[in-house]
């Protein structure tokens, strides 16, 4: 269902501010017929309800009369709330006892401060309007009354710039109050204004005079060492106390030196001035603010728990209760001191008692837990000893060494499965130890059951048909395959086991075992066929490979030096023609090695 507002054909009604601007649009409803009819009925009902409940009217009254129309604490108009909308933002009141009408008084920022708006059902609005107009009429009637006030009290009203007098006028519709001139003996005070305002101002003056006549001054003894704490934060606590009870509280002036005992004693007195009943109430509250000290015994082993990590617990307790808690150092004493206001101290002591109760309850739990823990440890050790003795049963069985690998299984899978299944320890020979013995340790029943299962494995191995074949050494890598892939496929296809013995010199032997003789022979035939195919491929491949001729190493010839100077003969006519001789002499050591004599 689409609801659209047609803005091309509407009427607008303008009303003087601050009233609403009403808009009456034409509403177009589009959709299924049934839904359109329901929507039309709903909108019509809403419009009728709004027309009935949204009647508006106004009442004009002077702004100083508004407080009297509202009454003290809203006694004449029951409930007050703030209605914040785009159009209105003012203090609103709703009369609930007799009428369902919203009464909206102008706010301080409004230009028109005299118009009061009424919103609600028409009949109720008219009745409320009539009642308010009657009240405004009564307030508008000017009367003048007199009251007798003793001259000794005149100064209280006109002193300090007539502060008290102006306050009475503001609270009572701006009535005119005239006191006699200072120095005259007249006691007559004239009050002029509306009837209700005059009566209210007169009652207030009588109340103030009565308070002055009943005013007393009492002294309260409070040790001077606590005065600083009471006046902390610029005396905020004392100011609040004075405002609460309408009294005046004065503390003695602090002196630098008090030599006389009488002066020291007078410094402890605080004076309270005001009405007698108010003074007593202020005295009680003031004494309750005086710090007191209480002590409580806390077990030494609980001090650490009360202090907390880094003093966190005790600091939080002091902040929450606004007290000071002193705990003896080094566990010197069980006595803990709490200082602060009486109520706060009692609250802190109660919390400490609760912590003591919790600590004692936890202590009982710790004792029970400690006993149970010791009891558990004793029985655990006992069961451990008994269990160790029961688990120490050993059984040795003989298994041929050639079957040990089968008992171990691939990567120890078979032996680990037996250990986990029966919760036993299985020890097999290691290294060069060729022993046939396998040791099983654990509970007797589990050990015997494990031994029985190992015997079944051995019997199963013995019952298998086994054949050994020899294959070409070059074919073994192809038979095994990458990471044993080919040999695992053969074992799965034929249901056999293929092993390679490790303790034989002949590395070309392959052992094939299986439960079925036919399966073993079929596997052997398959291996032989693969081997033959491998050998044929190997021979054919070698025919096309040229034989490499190995180069003969070259023999290095010795270096010969010919016609060197030391090889020439000085007596030879061929080498030295100018030095020929019939009897050539041969120098020892050649031409360069002759003996030299100097």
TrEMBL record:
CDD domains xref list: KH-I_Vigilin_rpt11, KH-I_Vigilin_rpt14
Q: Where is the K Homology domain?
A: 53-137, 141-210, 214-291, 292-357, 391-459, 463-532
Coiled-coil annotation: which residues? 122-149
Mind listing the GO molecular function terms for this protein? mRNA binding
Q: Which InterPro entries match?
A: KH_dom (IPR004087), KH_dom_type_1 (IPR004088), KH_dom_type_1_sf (IPR036612)
- Looking at the Swiss-Prot or TrEMBL record, what is one Pfam family this protein matches? KH_1
Q: Which UniProt keywords apply?
A: Coiled coil, Repeat, RNA-binding
The UniProt entry, under SUPFAM superfamilies, shows:
Eukaryotic type KH-domain (KH-domain type I)
The lineage's top-level taxon is Eukaryota
Name under which the protein is recorded? KH domain protein
Q: What organism is recorded for this protein?
A: Dictyocaulus viviparus (Bovine lungworm)
Lineage of the species this protein comes from: Eukaryota, Metazoa, Ecdysozoa, Nematoda, Chromadorea
């Amino acid at each position: 269902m689409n609801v659209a507002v047609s803005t091309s054909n509407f009427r607008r009604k303008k009303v003087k501010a601050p009233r609403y601007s009403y808009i009456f649009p034409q509403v177009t409803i589009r959709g299924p017929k049934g839904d359109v009819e329901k929507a039309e009925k709903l909108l019509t009902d809403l419009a009728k309800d709004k027309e009935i409940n949204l009647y508006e009217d106004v009442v004009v009254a002077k702004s100083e009369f508004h407080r009297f129309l509202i009454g003290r604490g809203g006694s004449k108009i029951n409930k007050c709330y703030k209605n914040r909308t785009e159009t209105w933002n003012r203090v609103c009141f709703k009369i609930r006892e007799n009428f369902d009408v919203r009464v909206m008084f102008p706010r301080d920022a409004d230009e028109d401060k005299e118009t009061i708006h009424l919103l609600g059902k028409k009949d109720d609005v008219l009745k409320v309007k009539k009642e308010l107009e009657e009240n405004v009429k009564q307030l508008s009637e000017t009367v003048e009354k007199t009251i007798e006030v003793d001259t000794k009290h005149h100064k209280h009203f006109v002193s300090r710039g007539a502060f008290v007098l102006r306050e009475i006028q503001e609270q009572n519709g701006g009535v005119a109050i005239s006191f006699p001139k200072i120095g005259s003996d007249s006691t007559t005070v004239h009050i002029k204004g509306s009837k209700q305002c005059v009566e209210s101002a007169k009652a207030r003056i009588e109340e103030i005079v009565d308070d002055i006549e009943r005013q007393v001054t009492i002294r309260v003894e409070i040790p001077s060492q606590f005065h600083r704490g009471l006046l902390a934060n610029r005396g905020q606590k004392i100011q609040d106390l004075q405002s609460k009870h309408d009294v005046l509280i004065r503390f003695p002036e602090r002196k630098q030196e008090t030599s006389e005992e009488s002066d020291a004693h007078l410094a402890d007195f605080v004076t309270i001035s005001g009405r007698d009943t108010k003074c007593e109430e202020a005295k009680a509250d003031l004494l309750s603010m005086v710090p007191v000290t209480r002590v409580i015994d806390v077990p030494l082993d609980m001090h650490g728990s009360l202090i907390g990590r880094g003093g966190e617990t005790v600091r939080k307790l002091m902040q929450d209760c606004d007290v000071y808690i002193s705990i003896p150092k080094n566990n010197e004493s069980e006595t803990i001191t709490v200082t602060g206001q009486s109520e706060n101290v009692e609250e802190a002591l109660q919390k400490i008692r609760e912590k003591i109760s919790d600590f004692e309850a936890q202590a009982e739990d710790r004792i029970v837990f400690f006993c149970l823990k010791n009891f558990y440890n004793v029985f655990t050790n006992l069961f451990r000893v008994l269990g160790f003795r029961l688990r120490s049963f050993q059984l040795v069985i003989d298994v041929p060494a050639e079957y040990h690998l089968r008992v171990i299984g691939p990567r120890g899978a078979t032996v680990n499965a037996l250990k986990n299944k029966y919760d036993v320890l299985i020890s097999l020979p290691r290294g060069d130890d060729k022993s046939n013995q396998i040791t099983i340790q654990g509970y007797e029943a589990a050990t015997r059951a494990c031994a029985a299962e190992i015997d079944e494995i051995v019997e199963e191995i013995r019952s298998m048909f086994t054949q050994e074949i020899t294959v070409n050494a070059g074919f073994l890598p192809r038979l095994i395959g990458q990471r044993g892939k080919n040999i695992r496929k053969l074992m799965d296809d034929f249901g056999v086991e293929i092993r390679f013995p490790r303790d034989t010199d002949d590395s070309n032997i392959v052992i094939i075992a299986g439960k079925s003789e036919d399966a073993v022979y079929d596997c052997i035939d398959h291996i032989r066929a693969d081997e033959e195919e491998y050998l044929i491929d190997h021979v054919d491949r070698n025919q096309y490979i040229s034989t490499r001729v190995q180069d003969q190493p070259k023999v290095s010839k010795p270096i010969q030096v010919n016609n060197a100077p030391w090889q020439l003969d000085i007596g030879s006519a061929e080498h030295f023609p100018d030095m020929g001789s019939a009897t050539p002499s041969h120098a020892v050591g050649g031409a360069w090695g002759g003996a030299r004599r100097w």
